[in-house]
Amino acid sequence: MSDRRLVKPVAVAALAVLLCLPPFYLDAFWLRIGLFSLAAAIGATGLSLLSGTAGQLSLGHAFFLAVGAYGYTWLAGDPGPGLPTALAALLAVLLAGAAGGLFSPVAGRVRGIYLGVATLALVFLGHHLLLTADSVTGGFNGRSVPPLAVGGFAFTGDDPGLTVLGVPFGAEERLWYLALALFALTWFTARGLLRSRPGRALAALRDSETGAAVMGVDVARYRSAAFVVSSMYAGLAGVLLALAFRRVVPDYFSLALSVDYLAMIVIGGLGTVAGATAGAVFVTALPLLMTRYADRLPLVAAPGSGDAGIGPTEAARYLYGAVVVVILLYAPDGLHGLARRVRARMRRRRTPAGQNTAPAVPPAPAARPKEHTP
C-alpha cells in the first residue's frame, strides 16, 4: 500500500482519538454543545439523504424528531409501558420510521413545493397532538426523560463514583461517547448508502425522474424508501436530543426547528454527509455561543438583562440566514464543496511548475518516405 493510501486511514484514526478527548479537558457547557451538535448532525444527515440525494423537499423534519423524543420518553417512562430504556430507544427509532412509512405514499406521489406544503402540515398536526395528548406527552409542560441504561450502565450523573483517569464522569461525559458512537454509525451507514446501488438510484431520481424511470428505477418506491430512512435518522436524533435535554417540551419541535435543519444542509452542502455535519455544528453551536458571550457582542442583549438589543437566538438566526444567502450566491454546493475546491487548488499549487500530471502520450512514429519507383 502506497503512502498516499495510508493518509486517509491515519487521518480517520487520528480524528477518532481526538474526538474521544473532550470529556477529559472540556467543561459541561462545551460538552453540551457537542451533544446537541452530534444529535443535529444525525438528523441533518437524514434530511440530506432525502432533500440532497433524492431531491425531496421536506419541512416536517421536526415532527419525526418529536416522534423519536416523545416515543422514547413514553415507552421508557411512567405513565407508559416502562420498557427497558435500550429497547425503548430502539422502538422509538422504529416508531419514527413507521410514521414516515405512513406518510410515504404521499411522498411517493408528490414532489417539490407540494411535498413541502404536505410535510408542513405534519409539524402543525404534531404540535397540536403534543399539546393535547397530556397522558402521553405531558401537555404544555412536557415530560422528564428517563436516563438511558445499557447492561446496568446508566448514562446519568446520579452515580458520582465513576472516574476515568482522575476525571469524574457525569451525564455529559457519558452521553458524549454514546453520541459519538451513534454519530459514527450514522456516518458510515449513510456513506455506504450513498455509494450503493440505491444511492445511485436516488441520485438519478434527483437529476431526472424520466431518465431514472427509463433506467428501471421505481420512482414511487425509492421516494417512499428515502422518506422512511430519513424519518428513522430523525427519530434517532430525537432520542439523543431527549437524553441531552433531560426534559422534552412541545414548543421545541416547531416549524423553526425544521427550518433550522434545512439551513444546516444548505450551508453544509446538499447530498453529502460531511456537509450535513458541518452545517449542523454551525447552526447548533452559534446560538449557544452567542448566548454565553452576549455581553461581549455588540447589538446583542444578554438573556434577562433588560438591555436594548437583539436576543442571542434571534441574532444567530439573522446571522446564519445571511450565511445561507451568501452560500446560495457564491458557493451553491455549500461548505463541503468550498472545502473540496480549496483542497484541489492547494494540490495544484503543490504540483511543480511545468510538471504534467496527465499520463505521457508516446510520440507518433515518423512517417516513412515513399520509395520512388521508376
From TrEMBL:
Chain segments carrying region Disordered: 347-374
**UniProtKB keywords:** Cell membrane, Membrane, Transmembrane, Transmembrane helix
The domain of life for this entry's organism is Bacteria
Pfam families per the UniProt record, alphabetical = BPD_transp_2
Q: What is its main location?
A: membrane
The compartments listed are: Cell membrane
For this protein, the parts annotated as crossing the membrane are 7-25, 31-50, 57-75, 87-106, 113-131, 175-194, 225-249, 261-286, 318-339
Q: How does it sit in the membrane?
A: Multi-pass membrane protein
PANTHER family reported for this sequence: ABC TRANSPORTER PERMEASE PROTEIN, HIGH-AFFINITY BRANCHED-CHAIN AMINO ACID TRANSPORT SYSTEM PERMEASE
The protein in question is named Branched-chain amino acid ABC transporter permease
